[in-house]
Write a structure and sequence with these properties.
By secondary structure, the chain is α/β, with parallel strands linked by helices. It has eleven helices and 19 strands. Strands 1, 2, 3, 4, 6, 7, 10, 11, 13, 14, 15, 16, 18 and 19 form a 14-stranded mixed beta sheet that branches. A hairpin with a 2-residue loop joins strand 6 and strand 7. It is globular and about 65 Å long.
């Protein structure tokens, strides 16, 4: 969103006049009238979605009115998508930029547990989709009703903290409550729409965002119902890059390989398995076919550390995501051609599961990106090779005991040669990226509320305006934010075209 100078001046003036004390508190939410929206699905774009919602609020992003925005985070992070937990909420009074929501006090619950497919899964369960593979969890959690969180002993009982969030180049103080671990579980069956109230936005989600479109999930997870039975989706035309992250011992081994091949300077492998040389000039490369060998069900049985040049019989850990994860769908498409190469010619490969583990190739299935990073960190501590896929908004901040993993080049192209970890993807040199989809529940069983549908549409229209790590607009989006040269045109199986 390009702002005129007068709007920037207004934003700065608003910032100085709206301290955190005016944040939308539990008491103000309880006083009503309050509109509720519940989003579920992918974890990777959670910060982008949060910032898009904030850009619609009073007193933020150049909008008029008083800034009363506030966030309620399950964990200890600074804002949604930044170590905040799988369940967060945020609230504000909406500005004219939010269209039909203007002037309304809106609470957004946002749940990202178990991955992208949970944008759709609750609605499939309520519609009666069979669940032979267990991919429909039957329930998900959200932060408990915000109106209750100001009570004694609750997360919002004391003074709020704050986070300075930059929107359209201007910094705004947004109120923040942490450790809001008081969550509520909602159950979805053909006879129970979350709870007895069956209210969209409170009892069940209105929709959400997925790393890949419904068709990919439908094929990967063998879902019978067509999208139209539960709602609709639109292509956001927003690209999201992914990368291969590895444990430090594997990082050092890949450096040794590249030094031996003359691809890196001789000093690049002078580090140790617990402290490799992490300078960009010494970033090693991983051939994608080796990741395919580890990630494939048909090949993992013969994998050990020697595939990377390590000792024969040494352990390799694959820290993959659960099948319902959009990150896992992205990994399947990039390295196994699944489900894209499933026509007459075939060619797709089945992904390795935890049950395919051997003594030298151990597969774990993580429900979150945090789980993958923890598994990589654990492997570093055990002096073992480990690798997995995470989205590029993640940036390790290494300490003596945590975040001891790093991204590697894929086929000699770096995913993070720039600070925003997307330049090569935007240029087209790095091809491990896909476009997000926005889903809105519809139909007669579990439709979104009018307000929920309006917010999802508004957020979708502003996703490309934020300047965030790993995320960018494609030319089709028509956004003024960072824009790539190519697009997949809403089809993950289609090669990017320019």
């Amino acid at each position: 969103m390009k702002l005129k100078l007068s709007k920037i001046a207004l934003a700065v003036a608003t910032l100085g006049a709206t301290p955190v004390a005016f944040a939308l508190t539990p008491a103000q939410i309880a006083a009503g009238p309050t509109t509720y929206v519940w989003l579920s699905g992918a974890s990777a774009p959670s910060n982008a979605v949060f910032r898009s919602v904030m850009s619609l609020c009073n007193g933020l992003a150049g909008n008029g009115g008083a800034n009363d925005a506030h966030m309620y985070l399950e964990s200890t992070g600074t804002e949604p998508g930044k170590s905040s937990g799988d369940r967060v909420a945020y609230a504000c009074t909406m500005s004219a930029a939010a269209g039909s929501l203007a002037g309304k006090k809106v609470v957004v619950y946002h749940t990202v547990e178990a991955g992208s497919f949970n944008a759709y899964a609750p609605h499939l369960s309520m519609a009666g989709e069979p669940n032979p593979n267990g991919y429909l969890p039957g329930n998900i959690k959200r932060v408990n009703n915000l109106a209750l969180l100001g009570a004694a002993g609750k997360c919002a009982a004391g003074a709020a903290g704050s986070t300075n969030v930059v929107l359209n180049g201007v910094s705004y103080a947004i109120g923040r409550y942490n450790n809001c671990s008081d969550t509520v579980t909602k159950t979805f069956t053909t006879t129970l729409k979350g709870d007895a109230s069956a209210l969209p936005g409170q009892s069940y989600p209105d929709g959400g965002f997925s790393d890949t479109e419904y068709t990919i999930n439908k094929q990967n997870l063998e879902i019978g119902r067509d999208l139209g039975a539960i709602g609709s989706e639109v292509a956001t035309n927003i690209g999201q890059a992914f990368g291969v992250a590895v444990s430090y011992p594997l990082y050092l081994q890949l450096q040794k390989n590249d030094v031996a091949d003359g691809l890196l300077a001789a000093t690049c492998d002078d580090g140790t398995p617990t402290a490799p040389n992490l300078t960009p000039a010494c970033q090693p490369s991983l051939p994608s076919q080796r990741y395919t060998a580890v990630a494939g069900q048909g090949t993992i049985g013969s994998v050990d550390g020697s595939i990377f040049g390590g000792p024969a019989g040494s352990v390799v850990n694959l820290a993959r995501r659960v099948p319902t994860s959009g990150t896992q769908s992205a990994s399947n498409m990039r390295f196994l051609a699944k489900p894209c190469a499933t026509g007459l010619s075939g060619g797709s490969l089945e992904p390795a599961r935890a049950t395919d583990s051997t003594a030298t190739a151990i597969v774990t299935e993580q429900s979150s990106t945090g789980g993958v990073k923890t598994a990589l960190n654990t492997a570093t501590g055990a002096s073992q090779f480990a690798l997995g896929v995470v989205s590029m908004e993640n940036t390790p901040a290494p300490t003596a005991t945590a975040d001891r993993w790093a991204f590697v080049k894929l086929n000699r192209v770096s995913p993070n040669s720039d600070a925003q970890q997307r330049e090569e993807a935007m240029d087209g040199s790095y091809d491990f990226w896909y476009e997000m989809a926005a889903f809105t529940a519809g139909g007669s069983v579990s439709p979104a509320s009018a307000s929920g549908a309006a917010l999802i549409a508004a957020v979708t229209g502003t996703l490309g305006e934020s300047d965030l790590k790993g995320i960018f607009a494609t030319p089709v989006a028509g956004s003024s934010g960072p824009t790539s040269k190519g697009a997949r045109l809403g089809n993950s199986c289609q090669p990017a075209v320019q």
